[in-house]
Amino acid sequence: MNRLRLVTYNIAHGRGLRPIQGFQTRRSMQAHLRRIAALLNRLDADVVALQEIDQDSRWAGNFDHLEYLREHTGYPFALHGVTTRRAGLFNLCYGNAFLSRLPLEEGESVAFGRRTVGEKGFLFTEITLGARRIPVINLHLHYRSRAARLVQVGEVFRYLEKRHNTRAPFWDVPPLVCGDFNTSGKASDAVAGLRRELAVFAAYTLHPENGRTFPSPLPTRALDFVLTPAGVAVTRCEVVRSWLSDHRPVLTELELG
Question: Phi and psi (nearest 5°) for 120?
Fold first, then answer.
């Protein structure tokens, strides 16, 4: 087995196109997550990387969105990486996650800071694909500040470099990187910066090259990507037409050499 079908999708806390999730009932939130589950079932990915997914947040119904999606998609493996956690009356718990048909190993979540609202970060795992180990990073970068994104890109690279020093004998390809980059598209912004850093592992290609994903009704910005190293061929990449979040999902089919 040498093919992998990957989706990356910022689901906006399950609120759909509403500006604030806190005004919805738990029942309406679950109904919307079932629509997202139906979309994921149709896309039929081996691995789904999710951003802005809640575990137990007051503004999102106080239930585990990842487990709810897993129940309605049938994925046997799931991994939640919390980057924002706050206790108290207005409790929050959310971050990034994976749903997978393939076993997930070595899972670790890293938050970029310690804010109790809006903190971004990344989730690392190793996907078992046949006899292969495929390292994957699912990230969500700062949405407003290019300077902050570049600092975060450096943190992602240093983490992967450290992982590589201990795990490289077990990796069959350099790490795949996907998620919501929140980038401006400039040569001095996050995507270009990360590609320069990752060049120590291999030359990386960006997918989609020109696909716009935000805002979903009429996309004007390319924010969501998959970065693939040399040796991994992309046989298909599609920005999926969908209005279930303010982002559109990106579907990528990979073939490992």
Answer: -105, 170
